[in-house]
Amino acid sequence: MLKTPILAALPQPGAPVAAKAGLQFRGIRSQTIMQAGTATLVVEGEVVNTGPQPLALPRLRIVLKTKDGSEVTSWLVDPAVTRLAPGQTIGFRSARAAPPPSATEVALSLATER
After folding, report:
1. Domains of the chain
2. Phi and psi torsions of 7, nearest 5°
3. What is the pLDDT of residues 13-22, one digit of tens each?
4. Mean pLDDT, consecutive 10-residue segments, the chain of 114 residues?
């Protein structure tokens, strides 16, 4: 089951993480919960437009990696909006049932295509 190693791989709660110019991930959290008897990894946080102009918001890419940085699996999350106004924040939450036991790290990025 994924526990502390996944949590340790994420930035400290509330710490901003640059996604690309003008967009930042904030408040990133993960936890493993039991859902219908299955371990389920939940990853959530916010994306904020810190720039002075409206920005397109692509899909979010969540990657699970091994201790040596090899990608185990990934998935895309469609945000609730496709554009963020200056200063606007949008939350996201995604879950993955039965994450691979070899996964010890979570990485977030913006997908290159919508």
Report:
1. 4-110 (2.60.40)
2. -60, -40
3. 444 556 677 8
4. 40 54 89 91 94 93 91 94 96 95 90 68
Three-class SS state of 58: coil
The residue to which tokens 């995604």 are assigned: 94
Sign of the torsion angle spanned by Cα atoms 19, 80, 114, 93 = positive
What distances in angstroms separate CA 29 from CA 4, 23, 86, 95, 100, one per listed residue? 12, 18, 24, 12, 18
User: Whole-structure pTM over 0.70, yes or no?
Assistant: yes
CA distance 48 to 95: 21
